[in-house]
Amino acid sequence: MVIAHVANYPALANRLQTSIDVMRTTHIENRRLFEMAAGRLKLESREHDHLHQCEVCQAVLYVFVNQPTINTSPIQSKKNDAA
Ligand SMILES: [Zn+2]
After folding, report:
1. Which of 4, 19, 23, 59, by CA, is between 20 and 30 Å from 50?
2. Interval 19-73: pLDDT, tens
């Protein structure tokens, strides 16, 4: 069993347990992460704690933060036709 092996490494076992705990908890709604990324919403403290532990929510937030559409500056799609 993999678990038996992991038990020999307390740090790893602890990390695995954390991952299991995170999986059991509900993820932060994508909409809330989006609003937070846009600076329109502050997460509740439990959501904040979850975000610190959860790689899934961190990844989602990362995507939203890097969305050019929610930044104030629009994409410069206009090209200068100097012909
Ligand atoms: Zn999450």
Report:
1. 4
2. 766 556 689 999 999 999 999 999 999 999 999 999 999 999 999 998 776 555 5
Three-state secondary-structure class, residue 45: helix
3-class DSSP assignment, residue 56? helix
- Determine the distance separating the centroid of ligand 1 and the alpha carbon of 81, expressed in angstroms: 46
Backbone angles phi, psi at 46, to 5 degrees: -70, -35
* Distance from residue 13's CA to the centre of ligand 1 (Å): 20
- The domain locations on the chain are 2-69
Considering Cα of 53, then 54, then 57, then 60, what sign does the dihedral take? Answer: positive
